[in-house]
Every structure is written in C-alpha cells, then in structure tokens.
Amino acid sequence: MIWTIYFVILAYFILGFIGFFFINRKKEKKEAQKSWLKFITYFFIIHLLFFSIAFMPALFRIISVVIIAVGFYELFSIHSKAGYLKKPFFMLSAVIFSFLAIGFYFFTGLNSGLILYSFLILSIFDSFSQISGQLWGRTKLLPKISPHKTLEGLAGGAVVAVLSSYLLNDLVGDTFLGPVVLAFGITVFAFLGDITASYYKRKYNAKDFSRLLPGHGGFLDRFDSLIAVGAFVVVGDFVFRI
After folding, report:
1. Average pLDDT of the chain to the nearest whole number
2. Which of 7, 67, 209, 238 could make an SS bond with 218 (beta carbons 3.0 to 4.6 A apart)?
3. Is the dihedral of CA 97, 99, 105, 111 positive or negative?
4. CB 204 within 8 A of CB 79
5. 239 has a pLDDT exceeding 90
6. How does pLDDT run across 44-64, given as a tens digit for each residue?
7. Is the pLDDT score of 143 beyond 80?
C-alpha cells in the first residue's frame, strides 16, 4: 500500500511540475530559476519526510527535534536582529510555539498511517494552494500579513486536499474524525500555522526566518504548517480517543 501511495504522490508531483512550467514561463529568468529551485528543494524534503515516516519512524522523530530546535533559533534570531524590540510579543510567540512544538513532538509517536496521512494531506494542500494561487489567484486574503495568499489559492488547495482524502483513507480507516473531516481540519490548521508565522515575520519586518533551505527561506518558512498540523492531530487524537 505504501508504494501505491508513493506513486500517487509522484503523480501529484508531475501535475505540480506541469503547473510550475506554465507559471514560470511567464516569469523573468532569475525569478523562474528561484521558483524551480524551490520546487526541487521541496521535492527532496517531501521524499525525506515520506520515507522516514513510512520506514524509519526514529529518523522522523530526530528530524522533528531538529525542526523544533532550529525553529526556536529562528524565532530568537529575528527578535535579536530587530534589536530585541516588542519583548512581550516575542515571549507570547515563544510560549505559543513551545506548546505547538510539544504537540508536534508527540505527533511523531502516533500511528505511522495517521502521521503519513496528515503529512500528505498537508503537502497536497500546500502545493496546490501555491499552484492554483499563482495560476488563478486574484482575491487577496490578508495582504498586510501574507501578500501572496489568495482566496483562489486557498480554495484550490483545500479542494484538492479534501478530495485526496478519498485516495489516502486506507492509511487511517475509521479515524477519530473520519478521513474527510480530518483532511478539512488539517487544511485549516495548515493555513493558520502559515499565517501565524507570516504575522510574526511582519511584526519584525523580516522576509524569511533564515536562508537555511534553498528557495524556501528558513525551517519555519517551510515547516510552520507541519508543526501546527502535528499539534492539531495530537490534540484531536487525544480528545476523541479518551
């Protein structure tokens, strides 16, 4: 089953490649190169996480610790570069991130099928939000927080992610919310995680959390949604399975 799902994901990547081709052909050469670099980096990240979740859970837990540790570093780094301004906001952000990080860490100890399902739905939502937003996006959602987010992008990503839950439901079966409702919840918290991270950057006038990931910026630029989704799934699993 894992290999069948893997080939399904490869098919999604082919669709994403086609989407990026049409998007990048309209961009200037330098901007298009940056977009392709982001796509290639994302391809490798997805594969690393997919195979670690499916075959090496201990490695995925190690990766989660690295993500959390670097995330704390990036939060503090932006705060320090801004001259340690807005300390109450930073402290509140650090507390919120701490709770999310704890949830994300416990997420790595859940059933591997549930982890993989959550990760894939999130990845599909993230990818197709960007593609549909760049192809058809017109209506800005939160221009002062995240200028590139559009209603069309959000809707496109959510629709593809929720429909994909029917292809991936064997991973979770009769899960605590049901595959479709769970997929919808994942898209909501993925969006909230992304927007929250963007809001933090805007408060300090920062474009990216760091430059550690080519084409993406920092770890929190790439994994903000994964951390939020992981915490959501852990809480949902705990509450509905008591």
Report:
1. 91
2. 209
3. negative
4. yes
5. no
6. 999 999 999 999 999 999 999
7. yes
CB atoms near residue 33 (< 10 Å):
13
Q: Which amino acid is at 201?
A: K
Structure tokens at 75: 């939060």
pLDDT of residue 242: 53
- Exposure string over 172-211, b if 16+ CB within 10 A, otherwise e: beebebebeebbbbbbebbbebbbbbbebbebbebeebbe
Q: Which residues contact 102 (CB under 8 A, 6 or more apart)?
A: 231
What six digits make up the tokens of 222? Answer: 């790439």
Tokens of 144: 């002062």
Structure tokens at 119: 């990760």
Per-residue confidence (pLDDT) for residue 180, from 0 to 100: 86
Rg (CA), the chain: 17
Q: Which residues of 73-86 are buried (b: 16+ CB within 10 A; e: fewer)?
A: bbbeebbeeeeeee
